[in-house]
Amino acid sequence: MLDISTKAYRNVKLKTAEQFENTLAWVARSIEANPSNYEKLLTINPEGFAIMLKNGVRYRKVLNHS
Fold this sequence. Notes:
The chain is mostly helical. 76% of the residues lie in helices and 0% in strands.
């Protein structure tokens, strides 16, 4: 996910992104805005992360239950 998001964010910055890449870039944007998010993301349970994406659950709730 990090790799996909980073590539998408690069395309957004270069203004060459496809419409769907704006959505994919949110992880990389979050890490750029707050580098500690990288470590937090790595500690999330993958199943919890998938639930968060599917249901729009707040990040902190998933992080606390990983």
